[in-house]
Please model this.
Amino acid sequence: MLQTLASSSISALLDSRAEGHSLPAGLYIREDVFEAELEVFFRQHWICVGVECDVPEPGDATVVDIGKTSLIILRDDEGEIRVLHNVCRHRGSRLLNPGKTIISKLVCPYHTWTYELTGELSFAPHMGAGFDRECRSLKPVTFKSIGGLIYVCLSDNPPEDIDRLEQVMAERLAPYDIRNAKVAHEFDVIEQGNWKLTMENNRECYHCSANHPELCVSFVDLDFGFDPEALSPEDRSQAEEHFALYARRTEQWEADGYPSAAVEQLVDCATNFRTQRLIISGAGESQTHDATAASSKLLGHMTRKDLGDTHLWGHNSWNHFMGDHAVVAIVIPLSADKTLVRTKWLVHKDAVEGVDYHLQKLTDVWLATTDQDADLVARSHAGIEDPAYIPGPYSAFSETNLDKFATWYIDRMRAHGY
Model:
């Protein structure tokens, strides 16, 4: 009965959203909504949780927590990626603590039940001769490695339209060889705001010129929308030249064998994503303070620095793949008003810090941008908690993807009974 009332209450909030406007406050700040979202978007949908190079060698393991669910990502003795539930099959104890570790076997610290890196139970003391170990393996998690990005789905019925993401990105990511890259740096920040505000902030650059001076050295703000009526004749001419350049550059990139055109699956779908090869401004090589490459050893099989930024976003991640390095950001909700943003900088597996790249140049743009975004998200969340908040209209020029995200969000909540 209580669950039915909660669903009805959330449904009324969903009904109240005006088309083309931001969501009502309750969808950002209510704990019952947050719990429903964890179930819908972080258990029933595919989410990005890491990269294969998080666990580069057999025995490497890392733990990722999603709500009350704890996952072990590891590389087994045969070099294969495994994703297992971090729950002992005896009495449920956690096997590994959060973070990275190196193991030869998975040993429960409570009663020393021991599992192979495949998840098979190999040792269970004092359980008697009739005990059947074969039915007590660790529970595996459904996952896909797409170009080296690890996606999991915690549902028994994962959405099948992940296949389009896999088809599109396997080809686009192949030259970067993310599977065999190296995590040069990882940085966690806890934003004081709702996870949807984190994602909305990332899906528009309406705010970029006023808030991201470092990023705007390499980003072209015209790529993220503008009001043509507000442009001077000189600026309008510049915009026309830019998009003519985009058309030529995209055509040439694709002729050279690098898929580049925008591919979107943003509404009327379960698996939400967008990808496109973007022009890098200035020196045109990388997202650094001077737009030149941060690493002299290029990623994977890359031989060119002029192939722009292959961006990819999903509903809990965004990524930028450039000739010299990649930036992978993963979003994990912690509560209705707290969100973990985990950012990883990837370089060629053989790149040497201090020789092929310098960490400051590699990371400074996105460290600054992440800090600035955290402040913006906190400001947004605080304003939405204010009783004076009324959902406002999205810009028809710069925030169309936010409108699509809100529409998709409501459709998916509806599809799961709200």
Q: What stands out?
A: DSSP finds nine helices and 17 strands in the chain. The domain at 47-158 is CATH 2.102.10.10 (Rieske Iron-sulfur Protein). The chain has a mean pLDDT of 95. The longest strand covers residues 181-191.
